[in-house]
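Re: the 229-residue chain
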Amino acid sequence: MAFKNNVAYCDPSIASDESAGYVVGSQWYNSESGVLWVCYDTTKGNAKWAPQSTGYDWPAGAYKLPSYITQLSDGNPVANKAYFLPFLLSRKTTIDKAGISLTTAQAGAKCRIGIYTGVNGAPAFLRKDFGELDLSSGSGIKELSTGIALQPGLWFLASIFNSPATQPTVKRVSGAQMGVVCGGGGDITTASAGRYYEASVTYGVFPNYAPDVVMAIGTEGAAVFLRRQ
């Protein structure tokens, strides 16, 4: 019997047995979860497989911040300034939500969020403008549906705020190690540690091409998250 392995978007079952061509030692990789399985019993109708890895560390339905962020705090964003957070993906991932965390609402406050491709460690082309968040009431998670599949690589989560009479308070990036992702920004223990990229941009729909950005060491950048479908 030929030695058979498999790659699929599911785990093996008891029917993944000798009659299906599997032998003891066959491997099955679930490309959705990232878990590798190895067969140790091929009994027909009662095959047994053992997981060999913990799989992808981003469960479906879970929220995720860019991994280089080490600390959050409450603060006020600056109006008419676009913030870009590097987000590194190791595998193709479908995203169904994107948003921010609102601490204190303010009348007339709004925010747009989107995502850009990364080229040479900087934001480049707009992948999708997710739309506008109303920050005039409530608190907690404010999110938009995205329905987007992202390929492995470097992406940039973008946010921009309008200019109400009083800015809202949101969860912001107050500690980060940008060098882990983008090869710059200094050590997190230094005063020059980069926290995000920023650029002056008039509030509105995101431009198709990212503006020229500079690395910032402040704390105005909103902590944008994604949720895996």
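Residues 179-182 form the longest helix (4 residues).
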